[in-house]
Write a structure and sequence with these properties.
heterodimer; A: 213 residues; alpha+beta; Glutaredoxin; 2 domains; five-stranded mixed β-sheet; 9 helices; B: mainly alpha; 7 helices; globular
Chain lengths: 213, 156
Amino acid sequence: MADKRSQVSAKIKITIIVVVLSVAVVLGVKSLKAFVKGSVQANISARVKGDKKAPVHITEFIDFECPACAEGARHIKKFMTEHPPTVYLELKYFPLSSHRYGLLSAQYAECAGRQGKFWPFHDYLIERQANWKRLAHAAPAFEQIAQDVDMNLEILSQCLKDTSVTESIQKDRQEGDTLGIKSTPTYYINGKMVVGAASLGTELNKYVQEAGH
Amino acid sequence: MCRRQGINIYPFLRILTGLLFMTSGFEKVISPHQNFLYVIQSYAFLNPLLEEMAAHLLPWCEFFIGIFLVLGLWLNRSLLGLAFLLVMFLEAVAQAILRHLPIEECGCFGGLMSFPLPSVLVFDTALFILTGLMYYKIEKTQRFSLDQYLFKNEAP
């Protein structure tokens, strides 16, 4: 009887040691990751929108082919229209490997930005996402959008061959990876990480309620 | 007469299952919880409060059940815990398939790997059956475990 009691006591002690060690390892790795990851970097001017002094700063990591990103983009656009001076939006690319046109759409968008047409191009990409994502070849659909937003197609064609375009996208993607982003859309609202369109809506509504807008 | 003893595969299955859950849980607990919250939200079967709680608690449950299975500590309870987790996962995946929710990948192993929902349903069902077998053959599963080491002469 006493022997069994001591065995149970040993088992509890081992359990406590295992739990404490496991938690210590997790906290250690988490702190190390937090130390390495840094913070969201400021964006280039072509992909920002709104007043920099606005109280709500949103950094959006997007894959143009992801349906939830389209939903989130529409939500932000509506929110910015309803509350014009409150949001400053920055956009970063996070093309997912599971989406066949994720990178290509980002390349076209980046080239649109270099012609000063980023946001109109972005809006069309989002609006027509359901159509182009089903195509066997999406490039003609992107060129059509480029025409619709009055881009110079010759400059666009040269831009698409420019390696700095992909480098710029990869830089954003790497930044997202370092921040621990796993899926799109991911937002940083005044530095707070929010993943998905549903959480974005909740977070923005919370802001509206708190600010009494 | 000598009887040939078969190879006892249960401890290996236990350790393998434990490693799977330990790694999956670890990947989730060290990542921002918002990533897993998004995965849970996509299954649309809990209210926001429960979604938030599950995003914080489930990864830790997976992580500790995995560790206890690998070490063979509190084996009976760990296997029951694992069965409970698997039932929850199966329910979440099955209702998502039935409702045709637009989930491309399960998100069940954090950022490590991901599978389409029907494959997850098959995999989790197999894992559930395996868990039942390990529980049924607990004496065999206990080989090379801390439970066995601590209770050499008595059943725990």
